[in-house]
Amino acid sequence: MDKIREKINREMRSGIYSILILKAIEDLGETYGYEIQKYVEEKSGGKMKLKDATIYPVLRYLNRKNILYAYWTEPGEGVPRKYYSLTDKGKKLLKVIVKDYYELVRCANRIIGGEK
Q1: Where in the chain are the domains?
Q2: pLDDT digits (tens, 9 = 90+) for 17-45
Q3: Which residue among 40, 45, 49, 57 sits deepest, i.e. has the most Cβ atoms within 10 Å of its Cβ?
Q4: CATH fold of 2-113, please?
């Protein structure tokens, strides 16, 4: 039963992490992976910690789909970092998926929690 629970929780978190990453980028503006990780950890009161293995595949995927704009800093500016920002398409997507998220939670709460 523990393996089933782990799988369901992993799948549930996967989509939520994508939303949180997009929201962090919206709030932070141009930012890089480590800043996003720290933002999520801070905003969650330390309860959510995004690992590199979680955040970077999401960032690469969203960049490939033109949801994010990404660029590397020049080596002369210290350690090269890849910065991300939302494209116009990304801003629109975030608004829509946040609405979708709230609707899903509202419906799930009705079913699971007995809310009307």
Answers
A1: 2-113
A2: 999 999 999 999 999 999 999 999 999 99
A3: 40
A4: Arc Repressor Mutant, subunit A (1.10.10)
